[in-house]
Every structure is written in structure tokens, then in C-alpha cells.
Amino acid sequence: MAPKKPSPAPLTPFTGFPKPGLSWFQSLAVAQNREWFQAHKAGYEQLWLAPMQSLLAELRAPLEKLYGRNLGPTKIFRLNRDVRFSKDKSPYKTNVAGLIPFDGFKPMEGPAALYLHLGLEEVVAFGFYMLEPASLQRLRKLLIDEKTGPGLAKLMAAAQKKGLLPDAMEKLKRPPPGVSPDHPRVELLKNKALALSRSDVPKSVRFGAGFKAWVLDQAKAAAPVVKWGLAQKL
User: Fold this and answer.
1) 50: part of which helix (H) or strand (E)?
2) What's the rounded Cα separation, in Å, for the pair 209 and 126?
3) Strand (E) positions, 62-187?
């Protein structure tokens, strides 16, 4: 019989990301080599990886309740960067990133119930960061349509009042073909996605257990837009 695989260690309750973690990433940013990373890997696992695992695990149930949908497997991204097509050839990222997708979608190819990265750069985000051409075309038609566009614009405006900003991996400098520059929803039409994010994490919650509640509050603010996109099958 093949030996049984050891059970994964139980996660500890989320108590926050310790402040010393910032200096760890600052040192990695200076070193940027495998030797340093391997020698200090335990620090990354303790200061960043373990808290991220606990945070995402504890957010899963409330996010499923919020969206009314099953979520897919949690993903925590590797620190190694893919430098093949990047001008920045630094081998390591200076943040830890995690994602909870919706069930039935591949990570980064579908909508995110939550995307989060923390370190020397910080972002909390939700929604559709990448849309296939057909989905993008459908979104633009819905935005242009006076029966559906104003409603989505109101949802986006409500999220903005709560601190979230429209976001996308790509944004056009000019309106899409056939769209007037003075269209009332032209800025939304320039986005090649339907996502919301913010990078101004309050210092009052950044390093404590209260960070989890703050992230969930952001998800609640973003949920109407994300649910709209899911209902439209973007």
C-alpha cells in the first residue's frame, strides 16, 4: 500500500498581517535573488503566507452567503514573477496575492469574488478583470442601451461612494468605435472589464484582525455590481 499523505496542518485563526512583514518585502525588493529568498522563506511563510491562508479560509463562508453562489478553490499566487514578457525582470513580486473565484470559472479567467494582494503594493478587488471579446461586446451593448446602462451606472456610482473605483486590466484612451466622447457612460465604456478595487487600506485595520471585517465590507459594497455581471452571464 502506498503511504498516506500527511494531513495539512490546521490553519490558525486570522489575527492580521504582522507589521514586520513589510520589512521582509523591503529586504526582498533589494536582494531579488533566489539565494536570499530560500534563506528567508520561513519568514515569508509565517508573516504572509499563513495569515493569507487563514484570511481567505475564514472569508469563504460569508462571501458565499453574500453572493448566494458557490465559490471555487482558493488560490494563492507564487512570488516568482513571469518575466518573459515584462520590462521589469525582477524575479520576485513584492506582495502576496490571493484569489477566491466563483465556482465553475478558472482563476483569473472569470469573475473574482475577491482578489487581494498585500505587501509593498496593496489592492482589494472584485469582479470581472478580464473579459473575452464576446463578453466585452455584450457589456458595452448593455452600457449603451438606455434600458440597462443607467442602472449599471447607478450601481457603479453607489460603489464609488463607498470608496471603490472602477477598474480593469486594460482601459482604452479613447471611446470604443461608434461611441461619442460625450456619452454619459463613456468612462465605463473605455474599461475592457467590469471590476472594482481600492488600494487605500486604513491603517486602523491594516495590521489587525479587523482587516477581515473591512475586506468583507468592501465585498458588500461591490456585490451589487458583481451580481449584475453574473446575472448577465458576462
Assistant:
1) helix 50-67
2) 21
3) 75-76, 95-101, 112-119, 123-128, 165-167
Query: What's the average model confidence in pLDDT over 117-142?
Result: 96
Whole-model pTM: value is 0.92
Q: Residue 123: exposed, middle, or buried by beta-carbon count in 10 A (0-12, 13-18, 19+)?
A: middle
- The residue type found at 189 is L
Give residue-wise pLDDT tens across range 34-56. 999 999 999 999 999 999 999 99
Displacement of CA 218 from its chain's centroid (Å): 11
Q: Where are the alpha helices (DSSP H) in the chain?
A: 20-31, 34-39, 41-44, 50-67, 133-144, 149-161, 186-190, 203-206, 210-231
Provide, rounded to the nearest whole percent, the portion of the chain with pLDDT above 70. 95
- Rounded Cα gap, residues 136 and 142, in angstroms: 10
Residue 30 has a pLDDT of 96
